[in-house]
Amino acid sequence: MANFKKTIWQILLISLWINIFETFRWILFAKPDIDMHFKAINLVLPNEPLNNILWLIWGIIIAVMIFIISQKFKVLQTTFIVWVMVYVTPWIALWNFSVLPINILWLAVPLTFINVFVGALICNRFLNKESN
């Protein structure tokens, strides 16, 4: 039971980091460009309460992925695997649908990598404490 509690706290801490970081990244860097891009292609970006709840769940899923993958891989390996699955693959799909404004990637690429990297560091910190 103690391991279960540690796992839950670890996932909650990582998901808290992911969701806070992503919220600031979205508001400060991505949303203005995406709003403008969507208007140019006559689309409206959904922003209902359900969308926000789904983003919160998305952050929790990323935290679970980081937790699971970090059990087998080192920090940088975990970061790269999760980052490609969570960010790069959807960017390719969105670009293919012509709804991704490419100019956001100049900041999104390093910031999202840092986001996952810090999540993996948090997870690694817990792993190191358990082994001591």
What does this structure look like?
By secondary structure, this protein is an all-alpha fold. The chain has one domain. Helix content is 83%, strand content 0%. It is built from four helices and no strands. The protein has helices spanning 2-40, 49-70, 75-96, 105-131. Helix 1 crosses helix 2 (49-70), helix 1 (2-40) runs antiparallel to helix 4 and helix 2 crosses helix 4. The longest helix is centred in the first third of the chain and has 39 residues, at 2-40. 17% of the residues are buried. The mean pLDDT is 93.
Give the key terms.
4 helices; 83% helix; mainly alpha; elongated; 132 residues
Count of helical stretches: 4
Q: What would you call the structural class?
A: mainly alpha
Large-scale geometry? elongated
Low-confidence stretches: none
Q: Helicity level, as a percent range?
A: over 70%
Summarize the structure.
The protein is built from four helices and no strands. It is mainly α.
Q: What is this structure's SSE topology?
A:
Layout: H1 2-40, H2 49-70, H3 75-96, H4 105-131
Helix pairs in contact: 1-2, 1-4, 2-3, 2-4, 3-4
